[in-house]
Amino acid sequence: MLLDLSKLHGQRQHFDRTFQPSAFEPPDEDYRVAIPVEFSMDIERSGSGVFRVTGRATTRLQLECGRCLDEFEVPVDARFELRYVPQPDAATDGEREIAEDDLTTSFYRDGTLDVTEMLREQFQLALPMKPLCAESCRGLCPECGANLNRTDCTCEPKWVDPRLAPLKELLNRPKEN
Ligand SMILES: [Zn+2]
Ligand SMILES: [Zn+2]
Q1: What pLDDT, in 10s, does the model give residues 103-131?
Q2: Which of 37, 48, 139, 150 could bond 59 through an S-S bridge, CB–CB 3.0 to 4.6 Å?
Q3: What is the pLDDT of residues 142-157, one digit of tens each?
Q4: Which ligand has the shortest distance to the CA of 135?
């Protein structure tokens, strides 16, 4: 959804929207939007070309467990407050005005605010550092790849002393005639 900032009525405007997961295709690499996103936002002019956004987005994101590779969902309730200023020219990039408050500053381009992009950024911020289906996830067997949450495989835990590894390799080498 692209919001034409020149078409905002008055000083402040309120939006309520539901975004289908398909609005976030193609998905970001590390998550997928699993259910429709309920979104509300207040946008307010706060100076020449400067907009202040207060928003809230609730949904569920589907992630892949870092240990067992199973997919699982996490609920997201993201509340955020951002300041939008025009994208600086390449020439002046790097020079930023010092703001009086500590709001995160984002940029809009060509007079339009990309709401979908804004939500993608919020979802990224909401992702857990280490995605795990459960704190107690047992992961995959390093030998046979079985998901140890679902099955107990019969593999013996093979631990080779790293100092002996070169020797083992030597012994396993096919004999030359
Ligand atoms: Zn897992
Ligand atoms: Zn196994």
Answers
A1: 889 999 999 999 999 999 999 999 999 99
A2: 37
A3: 999 999 999 999 897 6
A4: 1
Cα–ligand 2 centroid distance for 62 (angstroms) = 27
Among candidate residues 53, 61, 43, 107, the one with its CA nearest the CA of residue 81 = 53
- How far is it, in rounded angstroms, from Cα 59 to Cα 80? 15
φ, ψ of residue 27 to 5 degrees: the values are -70, 155
Q: Tell me the CA–centroid distance for residue 134 and ligand 2, in Å.
A: 20
Ligand number, closest to the Cα atom of 138? 1
> Cα(148) to centroid of ligand 2, in Å?
8
Specify the 3-state DSSP secondary structure of 123. helix
Q: Ligand nearest 134 Cα, by number?
A: 1
Side-chain-side CA neighbours of 20 within 13 Å: the count stands at 3
Cα 44 from Cα 54, distance rounded (Å): 9
